[in-house]
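ASSEMBLY PREDICTION REQUEST
Request ID: AP-0331
Submitted by: J.K., bench scientist
Number of chains: two
Total residues: 670
Priority: normal
Notes: Please return the full assembly, not individual chains.
Input sequences:
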Amino acid sequence: MRQSWLARGCGALGAVVLLAVAVSAPADKVFIDLNAPSVRRLPLAVPVLKQGTTDAATASVVLAETLRADFGASSLFEVLDPKGYLEDPQRAPLQPEASSFETWKTVGAEALVKGRVDRDRDSLVVELRAYDVFRRSQLLGKRYTAAASESRTVAHMFANAVLEELTGTPGPFGTRIAYVVQQGKSKELALVEMDGSNAKRLTKAGSLSINPSWSRDGKYLYYTSYMMGGADLFLLDLASWKTWVVSRTPGINMSGRDSPDGKELLLTLSKDGNPEIYRMDKATRGFTRLTQNRSIDVAPTWSPDGKRIAFVSDRNGSPHVFVMGRDGDRVKRLTFSGSHNGDPEWSPKADLIAYTGKDDKGVFQVFLVDPEGRETRQVTFGPKDTMDPTWSPDGRFLAVSSLRDGKSAIYVVRLGAQEFRRISPGGEEASQPTWCPRVFPS
Amino acid sequence: MKRNEWWLGAMAVVLAGGLLAACSKKQVVEGGGVTQIPSATATTEAGGATGAPREQTLSPSSPEGGRATAEGGQSGAAGASSSTSSEAPPKELAGLVEKRGPDVLKPSGSTPGSAEPVAGLSRVHFDFDQSALTAAAKSTLEKNAKFLTANPGLRIRVEGHCDERGTTEYNIALGERRAKATSQYLTDLGIDPNRMGVTSYGKEVPLDPGHDEAAWAKNRRAEFVKFQ
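STATUS: Completed
Returned structure:
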């Protein structure tokens, strides 16, 4: 068993020890429970990268700043202020010597991420390494070749790899979130990275384009648009910029939830009189109706194993979250309190379903319930409505829409922390986020 | 190893195992390997409303790796236009999407609020989370029925709306229920149901953009627009 470098220093309060070795995972991996409440953040130094060539100066700064932001957003690290660093990154060798580790220890760093960047015309060669300062050992080293414009991408990939090394699960940095933005009287689809960078409009249909949901491969967005007059289900191909009709039956056509294997699609259609949930075979367009009653059945979401479906029904009077088998069998009610529960989203690790409900003051908040309905837990707090939860692909974060700053905007919340980071551009009225299920890049 | 450490270990295994299964294929070549990242920018043609090819600032070649360029800025000029394709869908989508592109069909009322309200028909309002018609709503609909009887050539679409409180899909369903209750009452009063279509906008098109009870009461409504 390898001693975790993170284990040290966490025993000071006698609270949580992070060390654990997974039996089923690669023998050398160290796992850390990120959701443990009293994890001490590890002091991390990320100096500007060593520049192999003078024209790599910008890239070296962008790389370091992106790495600091990513590691800081994770619950694992406390990134130390670069102003306090003693070592000149341009003079120090890439591989720290013993004295160098001592210098970093003086600064207070227990972990160190450093690297070197060389520019070759329009491409970058980036070498990044993570070190345990106390053990003076390298934890991870990688070399990347990328277009000069991709320095942020490289930083995200390395941050994701470090998180994978430490916890067994890659980080989500660089992943994207689609959402709905108000444009005059219209609503359009937009896209932004999870750190709020690179916000883009995806549609300009001049209609209502709402309720987006990603295909499993991240190539398409299902969404409902009124461009034909009613609520019809469309698909936007992000490669060709073409839109296609998925379902245009009389009445409501919405949801569009890809099965985990990508072969089936869940839809909500009201063609048979009231909204019911259907499963469609994507190869044949064969439909199977999963709900059969006179009440509202909407908002289906697959379990990660594709065997169960959570959904919303007001069959007992007011809308509540239910779960059923993939054929509509074994229906079980999961929520019992509150007068309005909706937007269920099954977590990537299957153990929780996030949903929108009301707190005891009648304010909409995000809650979690386990798939057996044993226990519910409130995740967001505050005087303003917060809703539309969507999971990051690693299950560490939720994106939500909230009125907390007056105007509806998209925020990323780390599970277990009340830290809201707004990611939709200021000035936009934004709602209905949906997190791309693919870790960037694949 | 202490007892609580074992417990944490077990939790961590569940965490890691579940997430690994849910994640996409391995992103990077193992330790020290070289990862090639494709170039970010690409130029595509998008059939805009104007029909003119435009340069896009998103990289469509690899959506997972597809990146918005820094030059694209925050406001984002990129975007798929409203027009859709009438050509055959790509093979990968052949089973999933309709063969017929919607541009061969006549769009109607595509811009929210652009449909012409019928001057002689008054909107009706609903109680919170209710689709049952109030006494006031019934009284309004009786007047509306008289107007429709007096204008037999008029075809209308009943639009159901909700206030902002509530979840997206449920509100679309509730708005449909309101529109249908409204249309049914007009039918009961003798109006030919074939003269009436029904659409729900959920909470997406509020009459009053406010976030208070007065705005919400206005926004829980059914509207009557000319059917095009």
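REVIEWER COMMENTS: The radius of gyration of chain B is 26 Å.
SIGN-OFF: pending second reviewer
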